[in-house]
Amino acid sequence: MQLGLIGLGKMGFNMRARLREGGHDVVGYDPRPEVSDVASLADLAAALPAPRVVWVMVPSGTITDQTITELAQVLGDGDLVIDGGNSRYTEDAPHAKLLAEKGIAFIDAGVSGGIWGLNEGYGLMVGGDDADVARAMPIFDALRPPGPVEDGFVHVGPVGAGHFAKMVHNGVEYALMTAYAEGYEMLAAEDLVRDPQAVYQAWSNGTVVRSWLQQLLAKALKEDPGLNDISGYTEDSGEGRWTVEEAIRLRVPVPSIAAALFARFLSRQEDSPTMKAVAALRNQFGGHAVKRVSESG
Amino acid sequence: MQLGLIGLGKMGFNMRARLREGGHDVVGYDPRPEVSDVASLADLAAALPAPRVVWVMVPSGTITDQTITELAQVLGDGDLVIDGGNSRYTEDAPHAKLLAEKGIAFIDAGVSGGIWGLNEGYGLMVGGDDADVARAMPIFDALRPPGPVEDGFVHVGPVGAGHFAKMVHNGVEYALMTAYAEGYEMLAAEDLVRDPQAVYQAWSNGTVVRSWLQQLLAKALKEDPGLNDISGYTEDSGEGRWTVEEAIRLRVPVPSIAAALFARFLSRQEDSPTMKAVAALRNQFGGHAVKRVSESG
Amino acid sequence: MQLGLIGLGKMGFNMRARLREGGHDVVGYDPRPEVSDVASLADLAAALPAPRVVWVMVPSGTITDQTITELAQVLGDGDLVIDGGNSRYTEDAPHAKLLAEKGIAFIDAGVSGGIWGLNEGYGLMVGGDDADVARAMPIFDALRPPGPVEDGFVHVGPVGAGHFAKMVHNGVEYALMTAYAEGYEMLAAEDLVRDPQAVYQAWSNGTVVRSWLQQLLAKALKEDPGLNDISGYTEDSGEGRWTVEEAIRLRVPVPSIAAALFARFLSRQEDSPTMKAVAALRNQFGGHAVKRVSESG
Amino acid sequence: MQLGLIGLGKMGFNMRARLREGGHDVVGYDPRPEVSDVASLADLAAALPAPRVVWVMVPSGTITDQTITELAQVLGDGDLVIDGGNSRYTEDAPHAKLLAEKGIAFIDAGVSGGIWGLNEGYGLMVGGDDADVARAMPIFDALRPPGPVEDGFVHVGPVGAGHFAKMVHNGVEYALMTAYAEGYEMLAAEDLVRDPQAVYQAWSNGTVVRSWLQQLLAKALKEDPGLNDISGYTEDSGEGRWTVEEAIRLRVPVPSIAAALFARFLSRQEDSPTMKAVAALRNQFGGHAVKRVSESG
C-alpha cells in the first residue's frame, strides 16, 4: 500500500527501506533534502491518494507535537496518522483528539529493534481502534519480523497502550542491561576468570540467561576486550524516566528499573554531590580523612 | 567414553540420558536403588576402567563434601572427579587438594539449563587444568548444546573459576527475572493494557528485550493468565546470596542483583518487620493510623 | 497579631492552640462547627482587620485549590495567604498567580513536627517574597521551636521553595525511617541480641545514629516489644512520591529514598505480582516447586 | 579502678583521657613510645594488680588477633579482656575461647562516638557474661555519656552481641548518611533553593528528621558551602560490608543499607565497569554514540 513516512533519521531511514522491500510505496519526508522524497508535509499529503496513511517517526516531544499539529492541517477526513516515535503515552490521547477533530484517525506504535530492525524486523506494540489497526496491518506486517504475527506484534489496547507497552519495554531493557553489566563487572574483577568475554559468549546456548543483549555484550567485549575505549557516561532517553514515574503513579515497586535509571544519572556526574556529603559527614564525626579536591593537583 | 555419574535427581537423571544419547557409557549411582545402576560408590569405582572419570551431581554443601571425601577413598591415581553441582566456588580448592593427595584430578563445572537441558543441551562453565579439561571434553561435548563450542561451553580458568562463573550467571539470572517481573507488574496494573501476556509474547522477535526468560514468562502467562494460582513466595538457592557476598568482597556494586535477592527474602515473610517498624514510627510522630493486627479478625 | 486559620484538623487544631499561647489572635475556620470559630470563609474574612493574614492548613490537592480559589474571592488587595499544608511545590506558583490578580500575596510554608509540634514547636520552611515573609514573621516565631531562629525556621527562596524543601524533608524522612527499621529487623533476627529495644534505647546518647526518630523507635518498641500488634501495611503521602519524581526531573540519583517509597508500595500488596512472576519463571525453567494459591486452603 | 588500655590511636588516646577524668587509673600501651605509658604488654600486665582488666582498642583483624593472643600469654586466671575495637562479632567467640583456656574472661564492646566521645561520652554496646559486665561497669560508666545508663549503654547479650549491635549501628549509620546526602543533592540541584545549608540548619529543631548527623551536615555545609573542596571518594570500614553479609545470612532484606554500601564502592571507581558495559550495549543495539575514552584528550 501507499504511505507517507515523516522522519528519515537513524530509525525512519531504515524503516523506509524495509517497507519498500516489503512491497510498499513509501513517500518519505525529512527536513534534510538529500534524504527526502518530497519538499514539505503539504507535498507529502498531495503525493498520497486519500484516504492516506502517514507514519510519523520524529523525536518525541516538541517535534512530534509540531508534526502532528501540521498534519492536522494538511491531512483530512478518513486519513490515519501513526506515531511510531518514542512519545510518552500520555501525549497520545491529546494527539488523537486533535486529529479526530479533522476526522483523522490515530495509532500509537512502539517500535523496538534499533539499527538491527532493517534486516531482522521491528518489534511492534500498537494502540488504537481495531478498525484502524486492521487498516494499517499491511504496514505492520512489513515492519515486523517474519514468523508468527503474535511473536513480533501486539495490539496492546486503545490509543496510548502501544507507547505505554514500549515505555515498559524500555524500562525493562534498562534493568536487563544493568543486570548483565553487573555480572560483567564481577567477572572482570575476579582473578580466577581469564576472559569475561568467553563467559558471555558461552552463555549463548543452553543457559537460563541467554538473550539478544547477552549476545550483544559478548560481541562488544570481543570488539573491545576490557571496554577500555568506552566511557561509562550513559545518556538516558525519556522512557526510563517515564517508566519510574508511571510506576509511582500505579504504586508498582520497581527497584531494579529505578536502580538502572539512577546508575545512568550517576554515570554523568563528575563527582557525586551525595557522596561528597557522605564524605563530609564521615570527616565531621570520625575525623576520617577526606580526599581534598584541592590536593588532587 | 566411560564415566561414572553420581546423583540421579532432577538434573543428574536427565544428564545420564543425554550422555548415553551422546554415545557415552554411563554408570550412574544414586542412593535410590530404582534409578541407580550400581549399589555403592565402591561398586561404581569397580565398574569403571582406570583411569576413571566421575561426575558428581549432588546437592552442594555437606552432601558434595561427603561424596568427594568418599571418592578420595574409592578412586585412585590418575582418576578425575568433576563437580557439576552448585558448589560455592570457594569449596573447589579444598576439594581439589583433598583429591590431589590421592593423585586424583578435579574440575568444577557450572551447569545451566534446568529441565530443558536434556533436549537443548546444558550451558557449561568449567574450571581446572588444561589437560584435565581436554580429557573430559568428550563429556562436555555431549552435554553442551549443539553448535559452536564457544557458544555453550567455556573453560573459565583454574579450579574454582567454573563455579564462580556459574554463581555470577545465577546472580544475573536473579536480576533478569526481577526486571521482567517488574515490567509484567506494570503492564498488569495499567488499564490501557488488555493482556500483558500478549505483550510478553510479542517481545519474542525484533525487540531489544527478547530472551529465553522473556519467552518463558510469556509461556507462564499463557498457562495461567494473571498468575492467579501462583504465590509470590520464592526460595533462593545459595548462588544469589553468594553473588552478593562475593561482590562485597570484590567491592563491586551490584544494586540490581541485591535488589532481586532481597525481594526473594521479603517474599517469604508473612509481614515485614522493617515495615512494622516504619508503621510504628509514623504512628509515633504523626499520629498516623496503623493497621492493628488485633483488629484484622 | 491577628490571623485567620483555615483547617482545624490534627495539625491546624494544635497550631491554633500554639499560636494563641504565643499571644496571637486567631480566628479559626473548619467545616466542622464544633471546632470552628466562624461559620464560613466570608465570616472569617469579615472578622479580620485588613490587611489580613490567612493561614491555610487543609489537605493538599483539590481542597487546597478550592480554598485558595475561594479566598481569592473573599480577601482583597494587600492581604496575605500562607499555604501551610503539604501542597506539591509546583502548585504554589499557580496559587500565587491566582491570588496576585487580586493583589493578595502568597507564602508557601512547609511544616514539620506532627503531633509533637504543639509543645515542641514546628520546623518551618517557607517560600515567598522577603517583605511578605517579614510581615508573617511573628506568626512563624510563635510556631517554630524556641531557640535560635535559624535552627527551626528557614526562608528557603521564592514562592515554591518552602514546599520543595518540605518535600525533600519528607523524602529524607522516608529513607531515615527505613534505615532504622532495617537495623531493627536485623537486631530482632539475631539470637545473640536479647532485646532490640534496649539497643535502640542505648543509641540515645553518644552514638552517631542518635536522633529523634531513633528515640521514637525505642519508644514504640517499649510500648509494643516485637511490634506484634502493628501491621507492616504503610500508607505513603504525596511527598515521598513527589520527591522521587522531582529527583528524576533533576537527574539526581536517590536510591535510598526510592527504596523506602517502593517498600511502602509493597507493604500494601497482598501478594507481589512481581514475585508471582519470578516464581512462575523459576517453575518454568527449573521445575522448581511453586506455592500454589489453590493449595493454601 | 585500675585498668590497662592497649592502643592509643584516635579513639584510644581520647578514651584514656576520659577514663582518667572519670577517676580511673589507666596504664596505656601503644607501640609508639611517645604516647605509651609502658614499654610492652608484659610491662602493662606487670603494672596492674591482679585480677586485671585490660581494654583492647586496636585495629580489627590481624592486630586484634595478635594482641589477644599475646594477652593470653601475659595475663592469667581471673583477668578480664575487653575488645572495644571494631572486630567482626564472629571473631569474639574464638577470642573468648582462647582466653578462657587461661581462665581469662572476655567482653566485646562496640563503641560509638568518634572524636566527639572525649567530651560527650561514648555510646556503648557490650556482650559477655553478667558477672563480667558488672565487674567492668565502673569503666563503662566513665566512658558512656552522662544521664540514664540505659540511654548510652546496653548489655546486648552474650559474647559477640556487643559487636553485632555495633555492626548494625554502623550499617544504619551508612544508610542514614546516604539519606541525608541524597536530600542535600536534591536541594543543591533545585534553583528555587537559595542555600541548602540554611535548610539543613533549620531542620535542627521541631522537624522529624532532626538528628546529630543532620546537625553535622549543616556544620559541614557551613564550613564549605557547596562542598567544593571535598571529593566524593569514600572509604568503607568493615562494618558496612559485614552488615550486608550478616543480613544475607539472616535473610533480612536491607535495600537501603546495601545501597549506601554500593554507593561507597562506586565512589572509589574512576569509571564504572558496569556503566561501561551498559554504554557498550546501547552502542551495539541502538548505534547510540558512546563517549570514547580515546577522544577525551
TrEMBL record, chains A, B, C, D:
A matching Pfam family: 6PGD
Any one GO BP annotation for this protein: D-gluconate metabolic process
Domain of life of the native organism: Bacteria
SUPFAM superfamilies named in the record: 6-phosphogluconate dehydrogenase C-terminal domain-like, NAD(P)-binding Rossmann-fold domains
InterPro entries linked to this entry: 6-PGluconate_DH-like_C_sf, 6DGDH_YqeC, 6PGD_dom2, 6PGDH_C, 6PGDH_NADP-bd, 6PGdom_BS, NAD(P)-bd_dom_sf, Pgluconate_DH
Residue span(s) of domain 6-phosphogluconate dehydrogenase C-terminal: 162-296
Record-linked Gene3D superfamilies: N-(1-d-carboxylethyl)-l-norvaline Dehydrogenase, domain 2, NAD(P)-binding Rossmann-like Domain
Keywords from the UniProt entry: Gluconate utilization, Oxidoreductase
GO terms of molecular function: NADP binding; phosphogluconate dehydrogenase (decarboxylating) activity
Similarity comment: Belongs to the 6-phosphogluconate dehydrogenase family.
Protein name, as recorded: 6-phosphogluconate dehydrogenase
